[in-house]
């Protein structure tokens, strides 16, 4: 059962969402409701929910003010708003899902299902030594360099990090800077067990050794580096592990 709270300043909107959840999402238990940022923070700290349904615009602050004051959050966030202009900022604040008003029932069910799958999987894998379901990546990749090119074994790449129109390639003992975007490497390594876990990171799944729950979650790779995981990428990443 997912423990949830609703933070929304309009009583009518709270009632609609509450009724939809009661009727269509039987695995959600609503622990409380709040009508402002201040009330929302107090409610979340008191109830420690798994899931927060969060309106963006509220009196005396907005959803992002609320999240900024809860930096160590372990709950998933589903934004519920009448404005699509906040989608990017919601993604940057580790939103699991973004629902537009008026709420589409199918989308609400999808949002709850997504959070439920993520919570079940991460509860099993949190802080354990992970075992990938995949075989080790094979093959080579050619990296352009200022004085020519370099050929790497794909399996030697731990992770890639975006740096504007460049990408930093991290190996066990060194880093390479390549004049290609992270999107380029995401496509080039798509068949070699690399997962896009964040707007800034592409990781070799076989080099992930631990997963930690948090506001977006994070992974530890074999060199000890901790990398952030976006909430929207959790489900795909966690599906790689037993």
CATH class of the largest domain: Alpha Beta
The CATH architecture category of the largest domain equals 3-Layer(aba) Sandwich
Looking at this structure, what is the CATH superfamily of the largest domain?
Response regulator
Beta fraction: 25-35%
Summed over residues and divided by their number, the pLDDT gives a mean of: 90
Unreliable stretches (pLDDT < 50, length at least 5) are none
Task: Give a short synopsis of this structure.
This protein is α/β, with parallel strands linked by helices and 242 residues long.
Describe this structure in words.
The protein is α/β, with parallel strands linked by helices. The chain has 2 domains: 2-125, Response regulator (Rossmann fold, 3-Layer(aba) Sandwich), CATH 3.40.50; 140-238, LytTr DNA-binding domain (OB fold (Dihydrolipoamide Acetyltransferase, E2P), Beta Barrel), CATH 2.40.50. It contains 7 helices and 17 strands. It has helices at 11-24, 37-47, 63-68, 87-92, 105-125, 182-188, 234-238; strands spanning 2-7, 28-34, 51-54, 57-58, 61-62, 76-81, 97-100, 140-145, 148-153, 159-163, 166-170, 175-178, 194-198, 201-204, 208-212, 218-221, 226-228. The strands form 5 sheets. Strands 2-1-3-6-7 form a 5-stranded parallel sheet, sandwiched between helices. The protein has a 5-stranded antiparallel sheet with strand order 12-11-10-14-13. It has a 3-stranded antiparallel sheet with strand order 15-16-17, with no helix packed on it. The longest helix has 21 residues, at 105-125. The protein is elongated. The mean pLDDT is 90.
């Amino acid at each position: 059962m997912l423990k949830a709270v609703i933070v929304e300043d309009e009583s009518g909107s709270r009632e609609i969402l509450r009724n939809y959840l009661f009727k269509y999402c039987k695995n959600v238990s609503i622990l409380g409701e709040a009508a402002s940022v201040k009330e929302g923070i107090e409610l979340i700290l008191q109830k420690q929910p798994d899931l927060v349904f969060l309106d963006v615009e509220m009196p005396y602050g907005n959803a992002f003010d609320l999240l900024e004051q809860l930096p160590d959050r372990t709950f998933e966030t589903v934004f519920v708003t009448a404005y699509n202009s906040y989608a990017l900022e919601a993604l940057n604040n580790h939103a699991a899902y973004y629902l537009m008003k008026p709420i589409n029932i199918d989308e609400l069910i999808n949002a709850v299902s997504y959070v439920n799958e993520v919570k079940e999987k991460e509860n099993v894998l949190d802080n354990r030594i992970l075992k990938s379901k995949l075989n080790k990546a094979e093959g080579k990749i050619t990296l352009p360099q200022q004085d020519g090119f370099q050929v790497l074994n794909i399996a030697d790449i731990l992770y890639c990090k975006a740096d504007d129109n460049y990408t930093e390639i991290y190996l066990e003992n060194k880093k390479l800077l390549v004049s290609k975007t992270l999107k380029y490497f995401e496509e080039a390594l798509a068949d070699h067990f690399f997962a896009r876990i964040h707007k800034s990171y592409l990781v070799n799944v076989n080099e992930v050794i631990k997963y930690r729950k948090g506001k977006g979650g994070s992974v530890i790779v074999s060199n000890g580096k901790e990398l952030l995981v976006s909430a929207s990428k959790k489900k795909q990443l966690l599906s790689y592990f037993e």
